[in-house]
Amino acid sequence: MAHYDVIIKNGTVFDGKGNKPENIDIGIAGENIKKVGDLTGVSADKVIDAKEKYVCPGFIDLTSHSDTYWTLFAYPSQESLIRQGITTILGGNCGSSLAPLVGEQNLKIMGGQAGALKANINWQSLDEFFSELKRRKIGVNFATLVGLKTLFDSSGEDFKQTQFLLEKSLDEGAFGLSTNLGIMRKNGFFRDRLEDLFKIVAKNGGITKHHLEDESKNILPSVSFLIQKSRISGAPLHISHFKVLGKNSWSFFEAVLNMINNTRKEGIALSVDFFPYERTGSDLFMLLPAWLKRMNRKEIMEILSSGPEKNEKRKEVIEHLKNLTLHYDKIIIASSWHGANDTGKTILEISELTELNPEEVILNLLKINELHVSIFSEVISMEHIKKLAAEKYSVIASDGAGYDFSIKTKNLPHPRSFGAFPRAMRLFVKESGLLKWEEMIYKMSGLPASIINLKDRGVIAKNNKADIIVFNPEEISDYATYKNPFQYSKGVEYVLINGKIVLSDSLLMGKFAGQVLSRIS
Fold first, then answer.
1. Which of 479, 253, 284 is nearest to 381 (CA)?
2. Which of 72, 306, 362, 454 would give a disulfide with 449, using CB separation of 3.0 to 4.6 Å?
3. Interhelix angle for 312-323 vs 297-305, to 10°?
């Protein structure tokens, strides 16, 4: 008779494909699921009794910044993600990845970030980066895209070199290409050539994934542009952290959804992810006008440093900010390099303390902190979030990073890093009944796996990798807030990653069972 390393019995099992649950057992040997069915009387080294609990595939977070926020290095356990039930993350988002790193300027920028967290950059290629991660060991599975801005900085604006580096990175296991055209210098140079890069991605079976160039008043042309490039190239298209920012732009939401649905009817692969919060976590820098964001850092700092009475461009920036009609009482400073006393305060509070108008506060904060200021801003409609959750092509993603309680900082991460997935279950299943459990779980497991063509995860099936969670449906919830984000979610009781139990009876076991995932393996 077969003997297993782990048996999960008596649980209500959701397969991750959206099917109704079954009361069946799961037998695990090594890294894989070996049997799904009745295992009565079968022995195992460890038996998990999941009576009155739900069992499902580990969740897959398609928009993670654990790599570019360097938390994979600083907090390798990624406990805030594991306690949400996340077992796999996709990095390299929003145009930036940690490889390839070629060229003095790129290494200098990344080296400065890594040095602050005592991470030594000893790689250039994606393959070398993967080797470093394998040597260090990580708490969750990690896959990555390659970022367009990273390619751009590494190629020295040589398009042939960009194509070469993209092809090489895909050959070494990247799952596709990510972009953020809103921060690209010489934007026009690459806009006209994007379809050539998309064709390389399509040829290699990858995906293109995008931080929209404009998520507010120009969201329609931003989405339309990417659809056009996808239509020509044949590359699958995925929009990261999809949302429409600001009340003045909310009227575009229905038109964007119609555009997406019509595009999907054409047979074009188009999907989106979103986080279930009304406040976005972003860089204060992103509020600046597009023409300014495309300048280099030195040029931007010169404009910000000029006196308001001397510089016409600075006046243009002030007028741009005023025209955004921002709610300054709802924009919270989350982090800054040199303004620890400002953390947790709103722009309005700082304005009242300094007796400066809010627009001047924004420019001063950016100037003092050399553009490194992050914010929480309430600019997303909950009605839109719920409509998006109901769409068949949408998946949940954190747009955050993994942390643990060893973190020592006055800065505030967005609560989504601690609670995005349980919050979605609470809002859309438990409280509103908008989605059934099997539909919600599908959006967190099987669907994201299919979007990036991850074949052996996201679904509970024989021979798939044993990334599995057991959670209490009555207790599952988020607790992290904007003022106090350092609160783990509750309700996830067991987490298995590659067959190893990393969370047992809600206790972290100290095991680093995550693997580096390659598209070509």
1. 253
2. 454
3. 90
* Mean pLDDT within 255-270: 98
Q: What are the extents of the domains in the chain?
A: 65-278+379-456, 284-376
Is the pTM higher than 0.90? The answer reads yes
Grade residue 337 by pLDDT with cuts at 50, 70 and 90. confident
The backbone region for 397, taken as left when phi is positive above 0, alpha when psi lies in -120 to 50, beta otherwise, is beta
Measured CA to CA, the distance from residue 437 to residue 236 in angstroms comes to: 27
CATH for 65-278+379-456 (3.20.20.70, 2.60.40.1120, 3.20.20.140, 3.30.390.10): 3.20.20.140
pLDDT digits (tens, 9 = 90+) for 130-177: 999 999 999 999 999 999 999 988 987 789 999 999 999 999 999 999
How far apart CA 283 and CA 497 sit, in angstroms, is 33
Contact 94, 180 (CB under 8 A): yes
Identify whether the C-beta of residue 459 lies closer than 8 Å to the C-beta of residue 18: no
Of 170, 173, 265, 270, the closest CA to residue 229 belongs to: 270
Distance in angstroms (rounded) separating the CA atoms of residues 324 and 326: 5
Tokens of 204: 């290699």
Q: Per-residue confidence at 485, pLDDT binned at 50, 70, 90?
A: very high
